[in-house]
Amino acid sequence: MPENRMPRPRRHGTVYSRRKGCTCEPCMDAARDLQLRRRYGISIERYRQMMTNQDGRCNACGLEWEGWEQRFSVDHDHATGNVRALLCQPCNLALGHVQDDPERLQLLIDYLRRHSFGY
């Protein structure tokens, strides 16, 4: 590279810079914003507002959020695509395993009550 030409600084806060491996907060936010918009139709701002409205807790079990390493899942109705709330990973996976079927979930609750001691 000629001496009079400096390398262009990377623009942070873009999905492109995140794809290049940048892990600064603006780049991570840009990538998460794009992911949320594509999958659920909500922005990172809406996600954060939902976290605030839920007092930083899982909407199902009340588990407290402890940082980005334990990001909450966006729960949504698979039939309509409507976003319901933010859930911790165990609650979100449980709903997925019972295919969002309340009757099936109740059958599992009944099973646990029949086969658990001390409840």
Automatic annotation (TrEMBL):
TM regions (residue ranges): none
Any one GO MF annotation of this record: endonuclease activity
Keyword Nuclease: yes
Highest taxon in the source lineage: Bacteria
Alphabetical keyword list: Endonuclease, Hydrolase, Nuclease
Gene3D superfamilies assigned: His-Me finger endonucleases (3.40.1800.10)
Keyword Hydrolase assigned: yes
Protein name: Recombination endonuclease VII
Pfam families: Endonuclease_7
